[in-house]
Amino acid sequence: MFGTEYSLKIACMAIVLALMTALAGCTALYQNHGYVPPEEDLLQLVPGVDTRATVDEVIGAPSVAGMLSGGDYYYVRSRFKAYGMMRPEEIDRQVLAISFDSRGVIANIERFDLQAGRMVTLSRRVTDSTVAGKGFLQQMMGNFGNLNPADFF
């Protein structure tokens, strides 16, 4: 009914379709997770002046906060690249850390990046040092006794 020429065309089309499908599986897929506010929004925040409420109003509350009540704010954004069935690889990570003093006023605004598997500081806006005037032993032993197990529950 149909000639060999027709069946040859169908076979060629099937091979081309299979090759195109295989090549499409090798295309990189990118996925973005999380949120870090842009620099122009961060410039509206002034360390030593603005408070936690101002941060919530200007850039929004983060999805991750410090472990203790009234802790620091952390904004995290990651970008992953995946090929077909291969495990996704993290190609970019940015972390924005906003720390507050005991009055709830911004003490530090720091931005970190992931380079060669290590966190690298990109920018830092600091009002004062938390280790100024403390000796080596005071810095090493300063965290003992600061954790209350009840805060975790």
Structure explained in plain terms:
This protein is α+β, with helices and mostly antiparallel strands. The chain has a domain of 102 residues. 25% of the residues lie in helices and 33% in strands. Strands 1, 2, 3, 4, 5 and 6 form a 6-stranded antiparallel beta sheet that branches. Strand 3 and strand 4 form a beta hairpin. The chain is elongated, with a radius of gyration of 26 Å. The mean pLDDT is 77.
Order of helices and strands: HEHHEEEEEH
How much helix is in the residues?
A: 25-40%
Q: What is the residue-averaged pLDDT?
A: 77
Query: What is the straight-line distance between the termini?
Result: 77 Å
Number of strands: 6
Judged by helices, strands and strand pairing, the structural class is alpha+beta
Could you give a short account of the major beta sheet?
6 strands, antiparallel
Beta-strand residue percentage: 25-35%
Query: Which stretches are poorly predicted, pLDDT < 50 over at least 5 residues?
Result: none
| Oligomer classification | single chain
Write a concise synopsis of the structure shown.
By secondary structure, this protein is of the alpha+beta class. It has helices spanning 4-25, 39-42, 52-58, 136-141, and strands spanning 28-34, 64-65, 73-83, 89-100, 106-115, 118-126.
Keywords:
alpha+beta; six-stranded antiparallel beta sheet
Helix and strand arrangement:
Elements: H1 4-25, E1 28-34, H2 39-42, H3 52-58, E2 64-65, E3 73-83, E4 89-100, E5 106-115, E6 118-126, H4 136-141
Antiparallel strand pairs: 1-3, 2-3, 3-4, 4-5, 5-6
